[in-house]
TrEMBL record:
Family of this protein: To bacterial alkanal monooxygenase alpha and beta chains.
GO CC field: cytosol
Protein name stated in the entry: Luciferase-like monooxygenase
GO molecular function, one term: oxidoreductase activity, acting on paired donors, with incorporation or reduction of molecular oxygen
Domain Luciferase-like: 18-303
Length: 333
């Protein structure tokens, strides 16, 4: 039996050139409401720090704001970076969110700091605790469990609530952890494509059923930039490419306006290096996107797909998600 593949959103609350975090947050609300109407299942917010062009630093605060502005979307973290947070605080914060918005909150947990080393040092707790990602995940699980009621330390609210926990990853190490804990697994193939297929295979092969999940559930995240014509999509993608090139070269900045894609705006050698990072990016009109996504989903065997659309103009972003939804509605798992 085949069913339509669920499709979801990853948002970084990007701050574009000439705009402010206030504009980014306003756009996030607009996008969340728009994608809710288009049938997207989840709307997750990433945690990043010390990046002028990314405003999703206080992920939980922004999640609360978006949950208040929507009705059916599952609002989640993509993810909460555990090196930066004590497990009890995570359990309390998400317990509060889930109490305010029952059965609508997802807790995605990551093992990286989501920033550069200097900023990571400013954020981090005790280094011994930081390095034990699997142990920290288990602590979060314990604080959220009904069995924690007799513990000396309790997460209230949080204890006993139905808050799905997801493991985020960009390498095979996270695949082993997600499999051993029996948790759903999200892979960041939108910026770290190299180990996608190996990680997916490891996760499925080593999966151990848990109280939360009885069989593997795998969701890759990819870049999708869709427009009414492929040329228009390629033009929109110039902003995205310049943004990622800045990450590669250490020259980070706010997202820049798009330019003519055939203007030689990027050096061919830089383009080749960049493609290694953004391999799973789908750029084009509806027909092109449909063909490429169908092949990708068949290869990776996704149970759900999460897409992020880093473009400069908000209206172009809204339109891209419209086209993506129209394409994904006809695809099955």
């Amino acid at each position: 039996m085949t069913i339509p593949i669920p499709y979801s959103v990853l948002d970084l609350a990007m701050v574009t050139e000439g705009n402010t975090p206030t504009d980014a947050f306003r756009n996030s609300v607009s996008l969340a409401q728009h994608t809710e109407q288009l049938g997207y299942r989840r709307y997750w917010l990433a945690e990043h720090h010390n990046m002028e062009g990314v405003a999703s630093t206080a992920t939980v605060v922004l999640m609360a704001h978006l949950a208040n502005q929507t009705k059916t979307l599952r609002i989640g973290s993509g993810g909460i970076m555990l090196p930066n947070h004590a497990p009890l605080v995570v359990a309390e914060q998400f317990g509060t969110l889930a109490t305010l918005h029952p059965h609508r909150i997802d807790l995605g947990l990551g093992r990286a700091p989501g920033t550069d080393q200097l900023t990571a040092n400013a954020l981090r707790r005790d280094m011994k605790a930081v390095m034990d990602f699997e142990g920290n995940v288990k602590q979060v699980q314990q604080f959220l469990s009904k069995s924690n009621q007799k513990s000396a330390v309790r997460a209230i609210p949080g204890e006993g609530l139905d808050i799905p926990i997801w493991i985020l990853g960009s390498s095979v190490e996270s695949a082993y952890i997600a499999a051993s804990l029996g948790l759903p697994y999200v892979f960041a193939s939108h910026f770290a494509p190299a180990q996608l297929f190996e990680a997916a295979a490891i996760y499925r092969e080593h999966f151990t059923p848990s109280a939360q999940l009885d069989k593997p559930y795998f969701m890759p995240c990819v870049n999708v930039i869709a427009a009414d014509t492929t040329y228009d999509a390629r033009k929109l993608a110039t902003s995205f490419k310049k943004l990622f090139l800045g990450i590669l070269t250490g020259k980070r900045q706010k997202m820049q306006p798009p330019v003519d894609p055939d203007s030689g705006y990027i050096d061919p050698l830089e383009e080749a290096a960049l493609q290694q990072m953004i391999k799973f990016s789908f750029v084009g009109d509806a027909e092109k996107i449909a063909g490429e996504l169908e092949i990708f989903l068949r290869r990776v065997g996704a149970d759900e797909i999460m897409i992020t659309t880093p473009v400069y103009h908000h209206q172009d972003r809204l339109r891209s998600y419209e086209i993506a939804a129209s394409v994904l509605q006809s695809m099955t798992v």
